[in-house]
Amino acid sequence: MKKFVIEDDFWSLFPKAKIGVVICHDIDNSIKDEEKYKSMLLKAEREALKYLQNEEFSSNEVIKVWREAFQKFKTKKGARSSIEALLKRVHNGNHLGTINPLVDIYNCISLRYALPCGGEDIDTFAGDIRLTKALGNENFVTLGTEKSEPPYEGEIVYKDNEGAICRCWNWRESVRTMLTENTKNAFLCIELVDEKRTEEFENALKDLAKTVNDNLGGTCKISILDINNREIII
Fold first, then answer.
1. 85 C-beta neighbours (distance < 10 Å), count
2. DSSP characters for 181-193?
3. What is the model's pTM?
4. Alpha-carbon span 171 to 9, nearest angstrom
5. Closest C-alpha to 113, from 50, 40, 67
6. Strand 3-6 to strand 129-133: parallel, antiparallel, or no bridges (unpaired)?
7. CA terminus-to-terminus distance, the chain
8. How many Cβ atoms sit within 10 Å of the Cβ of residue 56?
9. d(Cα 151, Cα 136) in Å, to the nearest integer?
């Protein structure tokens, strides 16, 4: 059985963080109705504007907390959290395109709750998946390149036995494990660093699981990991 383990190296930097996981099995992620997801994304983009009340983009609280988090470990220059990247597009009036149902759904949830969401294909994992500090020699190839760009030593990453899965915590993901139309079993996560938003975080997880279940079938199980609950079987 594969496990998801959050290691001490992570908790030493973020003792109050929570990582919510939705494990989905036997889903149908094939694209059947692109217009439905396009409409869902447009609605989520409109909802996300409520988090951008300050004219200065970086002064909005949902952006600030992640910029502060990224200052606690070595990051690639210019790396930003996934939620900042999404909100920046909305802020600039650039619409999100559809990719595949799972990615569209977690992007909608991410925008709706202003929390980073991501997802990977469980069947591509080599052994357990870990959230930890990188050694700096992990293989990592992202979309749009064929060259490996290993994380820095001490960078927060998701990784397995074959290399890094996501660099700079939630900035860029590996092509090797990304969700595709053929994905049947998915590892979805939502990350929280602002403990004041625990209720929204929990609601986002329920919303994510229900939306996947309603649209793609299969089964979805929610788990929340924190400093006192550091691993689950996936």
1. 15
2. TT--SEEEEEEE-
3. 0.96
4. 19
5. 50
6. parallel
7. 7
8. 8
9. 5
